[in-house]
Write a structure and sequence with these properties.
This protein is α/β, with parallel strands linked by helices and 170 residues long. Helices cover 36% and strands 18% of the residues. It has eight helices and seven strands, in the order αββαααβββαβαβαα. The strands form two sheets. A four-stranded parallel sheet has the order 3-2-6-7. α3 packs across α7. The radius of gyration is 15 Å and the shape is globular.
């Protein structure tokens, strides 16, 4: 199979949401099926990511994707995924195969203000360590998954655990 055919069978992640003022990077693993359909980070309505972020910044929740992106940029937060491509049936991280990581060396060189990295699941952390490795010039945090499937924590518990982001922004 040629390289072009290989990539045709792969899921492709989104470009990062980032700007020159970003100081924090939140990393997921790979967009789920609904997010890929909508072409939006955390697009599934059952995912708590956006509810958590709006709650952290005491903002009224919005379903408008542009407002969501503005919330990130206004608070110097970048958003991306560990993987650029992978094979996966369904949306579960446990079904990921043949993963290819994003180019973090280039990303960090382009965005030198990023000093803290928040990984939004155990799988994101595992894949980041495997493909990128943790750098001594950044602080790393493991957050509970915002997925609605991660039901062992309530939305309020997730919000409390994600408050560590606020400490990094001070």
């Amino acid at each position: 199979m040629g390289l072009a055919n290989y990539f045709c069978n792969m899921l492709e992640a989104f470009a990062p949401i980032v700007d020159k003022n970003s100081r924090i990077l939140i990393l997921g693993t790979m967009p789920g099926e609904r997010s890929l359909q909508l072409q939006q980070y955390y697009g599934h309505s059952g995912n708590h990511f956006w509810k958590i972020l709006f709650a952290l910044f005491n903002q009224p929740f919005s379903t408008d994707y542009n407002e969501r992106i503005n919330l990130l940029k206004e608070n110097n937060i970048a958003l991306w995924d560990v993987l650029s491509h992978c094979e996966r049936t369904g949306s579960s991280d446990s079904a990921i195969n043949n993963e290819i990581a994003n180019d973090f060396k280039l990303f960090y060189n382009k965005h030198p203000k990023i000093s803290a990295v928040f990984l939004d699941s155990l799988t994101a952390e595992k894949l980041y360590v495997k493909h990128v490795g943790k750098s001594p010039d950044k602080r790393y945090y493991l957050l509970p998954s915002p997925s609605g499937q991660h039901a062992r924590l309530s939305l309020q518990d997730k919000i409390e655990r994600w408050r560590v982001i606020m400490d990094e922004l001070k």
